[in-house]
Amino acid sequence: MLKLALAAAISMMFVLEPAAAATKHKGHAAATKRVKAKRTNLAKVIADDNRKRMVRRIEMVHGKRRVVYQRVRRAAPAVAMLSAGDIAGLSRTHDPLDLRSNVAYVLDQQSSEVLFEKNAAVALPIASITKLMTGLLVVEARQDLEEVLTITEADVDRHKFTSSRLPVGARMTRGNLLHIALMSSENRAAAALGRNYPGGINAFVDAMNAKARELGMNDTHYVDSSGLSSQNISSARDLAKLVKVAHQEPLLRQYTTDPNYVVQASGRALQYHNTNYLVASPDWNIGLQKTGFINEAGRCLVMQAMIQGRNVIMVFLDSKGKQSRTADAGRMRRWLEALKPASLPASMSGTAAAGVPVTVSAAVPASVSSAATAPVVQ
After folding, report:
1. Which H or E run contains 294?
2. What is the pLDDT of residue 82?
3. E.C. number, please (predicted)?
4. pLDDT score of 263 more than 60
5. Lowest-pLDDT range, 5-9, 256-260, 343-347, 372-376?
6. Residue 61: beta bridge partners?
């Protein structure tokens, strides 16, 4: 009996061993299949990522359209950058309205009475507020708004590397370029306007600075027509002068306050929207406005608006937070609505009591022309 049991056990071993081997083989094959699937999925992810990193651009070569794919670098993670105002210590200035803007300036447009003033004499980078001077020069030069201009490589931003919906080779009227430069802060449009001024961009920048001197904007200096350079600087007091003059031009009032607009570029319709959503708000009566942003300048806003039957000019520079400049405008409007008709002399400092103009400032140099130089997005 013992011999029979031993023989049976040995025979079972020979039967089970192939089965176990077969099972092991199947398991190995399944694992191999899973590894191959993971490799295939990884390859697809890499390919998709590479495609996302390619930018499709249309260029005109010898009169023919050519599609070009250009590989772009992945942007570095966003980090908080100090603005020129922060570096100058303006963020330590407190005001009774608790504004998020390091600089604020409000005056009665008719009487020129200063109603609110915070660091208004400090010259800071102004970003795309620059385009308001660009628009004023184009209008005052009476250049043909129906002339068709072409976007060239010279209009591409090589300073901040901002994007644009206008490809190199796009053709558009000067009027439409002016419209989207003022309404949507289109940088290539502003560059093309300056480049197509008599004498080119250098002559245009000279004319911008000459106009600033003519208007008594002594804290102001321009180096380009778009505002992408942090060397475009001005003070809030100076910008209020610019807004007052620009408001006299009907075309600038219209273009800066249109909520949206469709333009034709090389036969293609492009819809643009205003960078300031307040222009579409029924709570506001805005006659002219312009926004701006680069890291060195912070969020900027200039506006002409009617509040309680009074035309006022507002300037907010170096504001912190995406919606902070418009929120500051709202705080200022509510304060102005509470003001009594007769106010004290503008030179007085005080609290935000009704009828009392406010002047607050930090002990900083009158001009701060350089600050953080990290890449920015306009």
Report:
1. strand 286-294
2. 92
3. 3.4.21.-
4. yes
5. 372-376
6. 64
- Residue 305 φ/ψ, nearest 5 degrees: -150, 155
The residue with greater pLDDT, 217 or 344, is: 217
pLDDT of residue 196: 98
Q: What is the 3-state secondary structure (H, E, C) of 35-60?
A: HHHHHHHHHHHHHHHHHHCEEEEEEE
* Chain length of the chain: 378
Is 128 a known active-site residue?
yes
- Is 343 catalytic? The answer is no
H or E stretch covering 213: helix 200-214
What is the sign of the dihedral through the CA atoms of 207, 211, 216 and 220? negative
The DSSP symbol for 166 reads S
Q: Which of 101, 185, 225, 319 is catalytic?
A: 185
pLDDT at 129 over 90: yes
Residue 136: both structure tokens together = 């004023």
Residue range 58-78: mean pLDDT, rounded: 61
10 Å Cβ neighbour count for 128? Answer: 27
Active-site annotation holds for 235: no
Tokens read off for 305 = 């608006």
Helix 174-183 with 187-195: angle, nearest 10 deg: 140
Q: Find the catalytic residue in 83, 128, 226, 235.
A: 128
Rounded to whole angstroms, how far apart are CA atoms 131 and 293?
12
Q: What is the pTM of this model?
A: 0.74
Out of 118, 131, 211, 241, pick the active-site residue: 131
The structural domains of the chain, ordered by start, are 86-360 (3.40.710.10)
